[in-house]
Amino acid sequence: MRLLDYENEPVPGPSLDDVSRRRFLSRVVAAAADREKRRPATPPAGQVHPMWRVVLAVFAVGLVFAVGLAGWLHWDRWTGSSLQYLAPQIGQADSGRMELILITGRVVLDGADPRPGLPIRAGQTLTSFVGSAGLRRSDGLILSLGPRSQLAIRQAEVGRVWLRLRRGSLAVSVEPQRDPRRVIIDTPHGRVTVVGTIFVITVGGSSSRVTVARGEVQVRHGGRIQKVRHGQSLVFGTDAPSPLGMRGREALSKRVAHLMLLGRAGNADLVVDSDPRGAEVFLDGVKVGVTPARSRIPLGHLRLQVISARHETISELLQIRAGQLIKRDYALELGHQFTASNPGPLSTSAPGNDAQADASARRLIGPGMARRNRTTKPGRTDRAPISATHPTVQQLMQRAQRRRLVRDWRGAVRAYQELIRRYPLASSAGVARVSIGTIQLNRLGRPGQALRSFERYLRDRRTGTLAQEAAYGRARALQALGRPCAELDALQTFLRRYPRSLNRARTRRRIRALRTGKAARCANH
User: Fold this and answer.
1) Closest by alpha carbon to 254, among 284, 299, 277, 297?
2) 91-118 burial, b for 16+ CB within 10 Å, e for fewer?
3) Angle between the 427-442 and 467-480 helix axes, to the nearest 10 degrees?
4) Distances from the Cα of 281 to the Cα of 37, 275, 314, 348, 469, angstroms
5) Among 104-113, 131-140, 170-179, the least confident range
6) Confidence tier at 335 by pLDDT (50, 70, 90)
7) What residue spans of 461-503 are helical by DSSP H?
């Protein structure tokens, strides 16, 4: 009994007798006993409180779970099993996925129109017609399918890729691997096996050919196994590979540059279309295909060029950011006629070296063996065999085209004017008039002279082959001259005469804009 707990209780005065003291002590003892009953009971020594039992049980379960998880993650370190080797492959299930990153022209996947970023799985077939396609995996495999080709995906696992090229051409880049990762490509005439290299396979009607730019491949044909090394080419069924010639190295350098461009592609998308379609599309000087083109492109600065025969060349410097979608739809204007398999640098180019991919391709194939194709040789622009007294129509057209290639617009106009003066009744004279109007309107800033050129063509050849271009050019010249009423009449006449023109959408938008403020503009003119 703890009487000290009641030391502050009032005590009786000195006048209390013995009976009063006993009663006081009895009350103190009763109060102390009552407090001891209300106080929580303390478990005996050596016995754990029930709440602590629950805490210890939860802690034990957590400890067992943590130990089990650690043992599962590091099982191969203790038992020598292959779980740790399989873990990277499980993580690479997505990284090893084959992805379509380039589509140009007409390309179908199992009969349907694909889109960039679409995964390619085993059992699918990719077919290209006029255009081309590019595929990539993050493990270093890059495929470039050429025009009029068909590729079947037989197997596309992390450790093995098995393809079948049924026709056309396929350029392949495989990063060397230490593990036995293999790429197998079957053709109707044999099989190509590779561990790490860059090569091109072409399947023809009666034979197949493999050309190696880096590393070596193994070719199996008719029970024979042959090796093809860097700078060599082998036709299936022949005795031995042969070294590449100059043309072969030049063609191979372009395919290698295309593979390198696909390897640099980021997460930005580019959609390019043209009117008319089928124009060649170049990115940083590398031909990627024809319009319409949809592709994953590298980040940073990129030079885009669209080239078509008989039309002006489009050149634009793009600044690409991550996740960006860039759409371009060009209306190609009538211009010089030439075929450029690889355009040269323009006067206004992207920062840095635009030919970096092509230079890298030349280093892979061999120094001094891959050169760019050019339409004219440097230093020989004006050395065509043109007579000073009697040049032919073809020679005058060639002279004007060469002047346009070097961007000598005034020289081109003079050449066209000489053609018109010497041969006014020739059909090329009409082409020259429309070309003069296009140059004066778009390049020299002379809409008045351009208007006269277009109107002269329409007066002489109302139903000529270039009448539609001349009529639309006339309307644009009137717009540049600030004559809205005449422009409105010209556009309405153009739309009535050519209702199916490729420029009909732009024409309708311009007509609506002119009709909105027609009264005010016509009052001032």
Assistant:
1) 284
2) ebeeebbbbbbbbbbebbbeeeebebeb
3) 30
4) 96, 13, 10, 18, 23
5) 170-179
6) low
7) 467-480, 484-497
Which stretch of DSSP H or E encloses residue 444?
none
pLDDT band at 428 (very low <50, low <70, confident <90, very high): confident
pLDDT of 36? 58
By three-state DSSP, how is residue 358 classified?
A: helix
Residue 304, C-beta contacts closer than 8 angstroms, at least 6 positions apart: 270, 272, 281, 282, 283, 314, 315, 316, 317, 318, 328
Q: What is the mean pLDDT of the chain?
A: 75
Residues paired with residue 329 on neighbouring β-strands, in sequence order: 273
Amino acid at 10: P
Is 347 a residue whose pLDDT tops 60?
no
What local confidence, expressed as pLDDT, does residue 397 receive?
A: 86
Cβ-contact 207, 189 below 8 angstroms: yes
Burial of 148 (0-12, 13-18, 19+ CB in 10 A): middle
Which residue type sits at 447? P
CB 170 within 8 A of CB 183: no
Query: Is residue 139 within 8 Å of 108, Cβ to Cβ?
Result: no
Neighbouring C-beta atoms of residue 169, cutoff 10 Å: 21
In the beta sheet, which residues pair with residue 190?
Answer: 187
Q: What are phi and psi of 438, to 5 degrees?
A: -65, -45
Whether residue 77 has pLDDT greater than 70: no
Kindly report the three-state secondary structure assignment for every residue of 20-41.
HHHHHHHHHHHHHHHHHHHCCC
Beta-sheet strand order (sheet of 280-283): 286-290, 280-283, 300-307, 314-320
For residue 112, give the DSSP letter: B
Confidence of residue 380 (pLDDT cuts 50, 70, 90): very low
Q: Of the candidates 317, 171, 341, which has an alpha carbon nearest to the alpha carbon of residue 258? A: 171
Percent of the chain predicted with pLDDT > 90 = 15
Q: Exposed/middle/buried for 502, CB within 10 Å: 0-12, 13-18, 19+?
A: middle
What is the pLDDT, as a whole number, of residue 150? 93
The backbone torsions φ and ψ at residue 232, rounded to the nearest 5 degrees and listed phi first, read -120, 160
> Distance from first CA to last CA of the chain, Å, rounded?
120
Helix 467-480, helix 504-516: angle, nearest 10: 30
